[in-house]
Amino acid sequence: DIQMTQSPSTLSASVGDRVTITCRASQSISSWLAWYQQKPGKAPKLLIYKASSLESGVPSRFSGSGSGTEFTLTISSLQPDDFATYYCQQYNSYSLTFGGGTKVEIK
Amino acid sequence: QVQLVQSGAEVKKPGASVKVSCKASGYTFTSYGISWVRQAPGQGLEWMGWISAYNGNTNYAQKLQGRVTMTTDTSTSTAYMELRSLRSDDTAVYYCASGGSYPFVNYWGQGTLVTVSS
């Protein structure tokens, strides 16, 4: 199985900060990567799919980039509603795996 | 609007089985597959598997092979996930999810808490 390593595991930031989260795959997954946001007690929400495609209705301050084994999720200007946990998810050979998550906390 | 409504919380003893349902509405059920994802208390997300609502084809996570079965009933637009030989570490919130750009999903059920305890 492909392993996904997210970093950092926790991130402290302030409103207005530019935030970057990294996800590394144990082998190449082309662009088969998604990013989800999850708030406590809620189901995850799809933000980005196929590495860089913004899901409909998601604010444009969210962007994704990368291919192969290294990917990033960037929030250009952190908003109060963005404090949450973020997960990457890869797809390869009919199997999917989530990264361990990155909790974005208020500094 | 798309809705996925899951069955209620369950408490099971170790060794038992649980079957969680997920009723879809607001879209043509056979147009999308259903993924199942679980989350143990305070832990991250774990993909369990996927079933095609069109033809019933399945893909399961390797660690759950042999213990999990996913099915659908197109007459009621309902998906099911059965997990057998339950252990304490199967205690989790179980989500069904669908829609979106395959294989990534953008509609999620509300989650079903399954507690495994003697």
From TrEMBL, chain A:
SUPFAM superfamilies: Immunoglobulin (SSF48726). Residues 2-99 form the Ig-like domain. GO terms for biological process: adaptive immune response. Its main location: membrane. Keywords: Adaptive immunity, Cell membrane, Immunity, Immunoglobulin, Immunoglobulin domain, Membrane, Secreted. InterPro entries: Ig-like_dom (IPR007110), Ig-like_dom_sf (IPR036179), Ig-like_fold (IPR013783), Ig_sub (IPR003599), Ig_V-set (IPR013106), IgV_Light_Chain (IPR050150). It comes from the Eukaryota. This is IGH + IGL c32_light_IGKV1-5_IGKJ4.
